[in-house]
Write a structure and sequence with these properties.
49% of the residues lie in helices and 0% in strands. The protein is mainly alpha-helical. The radius of gyration is 20 Å and the shape is globular.
Amino acid sequence: MSDIIKTSDFDMEFRDEVFKEPDADKITLCFNCTGCTSGCPMAEQEPEYNIRKFLRMANLGMKDALLNSPYLWYCTTCYKCQERCPQGVKNVDTLLKIRTIAIQNGIMLDNHRKVSQLVIKLGHAVPINDDAKEKRKDVGLDDTPPTVHKFEDALGEVQKLLKISGFNELVAEKEETS
């Protein structure tokens, strides 16, 4: 019986926060045509993934259930759903806003947290290694991309910007509580 939705679970402040985004109010225009889901690469891979469901939950103000759903993070941001919507619903843009709210509430998948910490440490989400350098040379590129990998002095500047923006605090390791 845990699937029962109670109106006491609706958080209208959360709904209002989501609806502050430009054109987010178009969520209410969704008539479940399934155009968004029919081309979604994640919906093909994961039957539980349904962006329409997330947008409906946002529209109802189901903050806790939505922000704590691991499926919230499955979207690859390919924008196929948004391009296919006959009503112009900003599916991905709204989902990104919801993810932002989740992160601001300290909710983030551990793998995303680890990748974010790599950005802080190295200036990149994916560190470069010798294999990647060889592959870059094989396709005619410099072995090192023109980023902080090549301009190591820039790493300090990147780290400074991340700290000023508060990114460090958002992705810090969570302390275990007993």
